[in-house]
Amino acid sequence: MLLGNFQLSEGGEVLKRFSEVEAVCLQALMADPLRPFVPQYHGSVTKGGESYIRLKDLLSGLKNPVIMDCKMGVRTYQEEELTKAHTKPTLRTDMYQKMVKVDPTAPTVEEHEQRGVTKWRYLQWRDNTSSTATLGFRIECIMMENGIVQRDFKKMLTPAQVTEALLSFTKSQLHILKAYHSRLQALDEALKESPFFKAHEVIGSSLLFVHDRTSQASIWMIDFGKTTPSPSSVQLRHDVPWAEGNREDGYLIGLAALTSFVGQAISQAACRQVENHGEEMGSVAHTLQEQEHTH
Ligand SMILES: O=P(O)(O)O[C@H]1[C@H](O)[C@@H](OP(=O)(O)O)[C@H](OP(=O)(O)O)[C@@H](OP(=O)(O)O)[C@H]1O
Ligand SMILES: Nc1ncnc2c1ncn2[C@@H]1O[C@H](COP(=O)(O)OP(=O)(O)O)[C@@H](O)[C@H]1O
């Protein structure tokens, strides 16, 4: 599921279009307790006149990988985007069109007239109409083992919908769900120890869930294009709501919610297993009874 900014490369690497912000983050992360949760970074390279970041291909060696991209945090726009919208607004026709496609009634009368919205307005609308603003994360897309990518999670808001998506993504396989749960808990521990996390506002970054049919399952932190050092005067907590100026990203709100939904998916998958087992036992008993009857 490599998108526009990516190119496949040799030797188990992918190339992502270069961003100075992301490269600086990756460099710092290679020497941070979060390193085991980040694809290995091999510096940058120029190819055909374009610069790229070299990253370990997280799918290499996997058999028919299944992937889920969860965008973390209670907002996906930087505070600068909000300032820009107030001081020198640029109208985006493409974002207006994306908005209308999902909900023709979403733009205001003025926005309809202008046929444009600011980037901040679009991103904030996306956050409010998905689970981002309330749960602190949203499912961006899922790719199943047949390579088909689902992106119809734009209006997914409730915990029940998320848990159902997790069950469908893992096909209710308990060992996969349990592996994801442990990895999320380990990530939480590493974040507590991380000097990088303490000092950065993490916006628009994703957790990439990956498993395959050999039962390998892992979760990786990706996409640091909007992750920036927080001002020295601000001590970020990551677990409190955002208010203009406080710079909080709500990353830990999302992580706690996601961990709890994976936990709920585990309970539901276990119940379904018991029910199925019960039904199987029932049908075996029924067959035995019938056989006895005919003899
Ligand atoms: O997902 P949809 O609703 O299509 O909206 C996209 C995502 O929010 C992108 O964030 P991400 O790359 O984290 O997925 C964002 O890129 P930025 O990273 O530039 O904010 C795009 O802004 P533009 O690139 O300005 O179009 C915006 O159009
Ligand atoms: N190191 C990687 N190995 C394999 N696939 C990756 C890797 N990094 C990203 N991807 C894939 O590319 C998608 C987009 O990655 P991301 O870093 O969010 O790019 P963008 O900033 O262009 O949105 C992810 O959802 C994932 O499927």
What is this entry, summarized?
With 295 residues, the chain is of the alpha+beta class. It has 10 helices and 11 strands.
Q: What this model shows, in words?
A:
The protein has 295 residues and is an alpha+beta fold. The chain has two domains: 6-74 and 136-294, D-amino Acid Aminotransferase, Chain A, domain 1, CATH 3.30.470.160; 78-131, no CATH class. Helix content is 44%, strand content 20%. It contains ten helices and eleven strands. The protein has helices at 20-29, 79-87, 93-102, 109-114, 119-129, 132-135, 159-169, 174-193, 195-199, 251-294; strands at 6-8, 13-17, 41-47, 50-56, 66-72, 137-143, 149-150, 200-203, 206-211, 217-222, 226-229. A five-stranded antiparallel sheet has the order 7-6-5-9-10. β6 and β7 (149-150) form a beta hairpin. The longest helix has 44 residues, at 251-294. The radius of gyration is 22 Å and the shape is globular. The N and C termini lie far apart (58 Å). The model has no long low-confidence stretch (mean pLDDT 93). Bound molecules: inositol-(1,3,4,5)-tetrakisphosphate and adenosine-5'-diphosphate (ADP). The site of inositol-(1,3,4,5)-tetrakisphosphate has 9 residues, from α5.
